[in-house]
Write a structure and sequence with these properties.
There is one protein chain. By secondary structure, this protein is an alpha/beta fold. It has a domain of about 240 residues: Type I PLP-dependent aspartate aminotransferase-like (Major domain) (Aspartate Aminotransferase, domain 2, 3-Layer(aba) Sandwich). The protein has 14 helices and 17 strands. The protein has a 7-stranded mixed β-sheet. The protein has a 4-stranded mixed β-sheet with strand order 1-2-3-15. It has a 4-stranded antiparallel β-sheet with strand order 13-14-17-16, with helices on one face. The protein is globular, with a radius of gyration of 21 Å. The two termini are about 35 Å apart.
């Protein structure tokens, strides 16, 4: 196993290779396998891109069959059979059963590109420019998406001024006793608050990069009511928290809200292939033809994988109920760990999207991640200071593998406390 070629030729911008310094060669289900045949339990899942696991055999077969018959791979935004089958599956499996009516905008394949499109269409529809975003929020690193991303680390790397956004506190930012929705309402209504009337409010229901901060259903409902009253489009960024990660297909379902715009990426393709999608209420679909394009907005292999995932896992509520059960199992194990260190650790998240945060150690997540990797688990850190360990196992992970991975992370956590006693 050698990393010399990467070190010699690849840019210093490389990131995850530094956290997980091995050469991966194969993967199946919830396992990553190195060039040296060492197996790692994957609690990272491609940053939430592999909700259905690595090389899912049901999805893989659909892709192989499609390639074998010489199906269209690249199609821009032309009509193809694969695209039509995805549209129909998404409508019939996801939108119609939930009483939702959205237009589908296929953007370039990254989540950041979809975020750019969501912001642009809101600005066009309202004629306003300011976007309300939240502290600890993350929406991508292209300039428009970065403007509504809170992290100083990422914003500094823009190397240009970032404008067009106003940041406000997320739920719990100042503690449980501070009503951040009331604060936002006051700022919007006060003509001298300094906050320009917004084109949109963009929010993650579960902030991933920002520390696995999960908004409550009540807080989300009040945010939706606030934006509706003031005719401000509400954008939900469901790039990481969507596609079943919270237990429901959309992370906002539990709250009962209906966002004006929804951004999907990561696991929407089912198989880890590049694909992004923006859902737009029809009255906001003010695009002119070609108003936001991209050469790879017609990745038909991604459409095939996405259709297979929808038809396999979302034909009824069986998969959703199983994800919720596994989420409860994961949460229960993590709650036991946190309880042993009351006042020092905090459990956050929802469903199969969980985080263990240190309240006293800013490097906690990084050190736990490094220890876990050395002992066979790939897991990411998160939060303003890397103080959070973020759990994103594939949703298809079996109980035995899930608990085995938690055992390793538990040992990593306990090792941090042992090191300071």
């Amino acid at each position: 196993m050698s990393l010399e070629s990467f070190e010699e030729w690849e840019s210093e911008v490389r990131s995850y290779i530094r956290s997980f310094p091995t050469v991966f060669d194969r993967a199946r289900g919830s396992l990553l396998i190195g060039e040296d045949d060492k197996e790692y339990i994957d609690f990272f899942a491609g940053a939430g891109t592999l909700n259905y696991g690595h090389n899912n055999p049901l999805l893989k077969q659909a892709l192989l069959d499609y390639l074998e018959r010489d199906g269209i791979v690249h199609g821009l935004d032309m009509a193809t059979r694969a695209k039509r089958e995805f549209i129909e599956a998404f409508a019939n499996r996801i939108l119609i059963p939930r009483g939702l009516r959205y237009k589908l905008h296929f953007t370039g394949p990254t989540g950041a590109n979809a975020t750019e499109a969501a912001i642009k269409v809101a600005r066009q529809a309202t004629g306003r420019t300011n976007v309300i975003a939240f502290a600890h929020g993350y929406h991508g690193l292209s300039l428009g998406a970065l403007a509504v991303t809170a992290s100083r680390k990422f914003r500094t790397n823009a190397a240009v001024p970032l404008g067009g956004a106003t940041f406000v506190p997320f739920e719990g930012y100042f503690g449980a006793d501070v009503d951040t929705i009331a604060m936002l309402a006051k700022m919007l209504d006060d003509p001298s608050s300094g906050v320009d009337q917004p084109a949109a409010v963009i929010v993650e229901t579960i902030q991933g990069e920002g520390g696995v901060n999960a908004a409550s259903a009540g807080w989300l409902r009040r945010l939706a009511e606030l934006t509706a009253e003031r005719k401000i489009p509400l954008i939900v960024d469901d790039i990481q928290a969507g596609c079943g990660r919270s237990g429901d297909f959309f992370s906002f379902e539990e709250s009962g809200i209906v966002p004006d715009v929804v951004v999907l990426s990561k696991s929407i393709s089912g198989y880890g292939l590049p694909m992004s999608l923006v859902l737009i209420k029809p009255e906001l679909d003010v695009w002119q033809p070609g108003g936001h394009t991209g050469t790879f907005r017609g990745n038909n292999l991604a459409f095939v994988g996405a259709t297979a995932a929808l038809n396999t896992y979302w034909a009824d509520d069986t998969f959703s109920l199983e994800v919720k059960r596994k989420g409860e199992l994961l949460c229960s194990r993590l709650a036991d760990i946190v309880a042993r260190h009351s006042g020092e650790l905090e459990l956050r998240g929802r469903g199969m999207f969980q985080g263990v945060a240190s309240l006293i150690d800013p490097d906690f997540g990084t050190r736990v991640s490094h220890y876990a990797f050395e002992h066979g688990v790939v897991i990411e850190d998160a939060g303003s200071y890397s103080e959070v360990v973020k759990f994103l196992p594939p949703l298809t992970t079996d109980d035995e593998t899930l608990l085995a991975g938690v055992d390793v992370v538990e040992a990593a956590i306990e090792a941090q406390f042992a090191a300071v006693t």
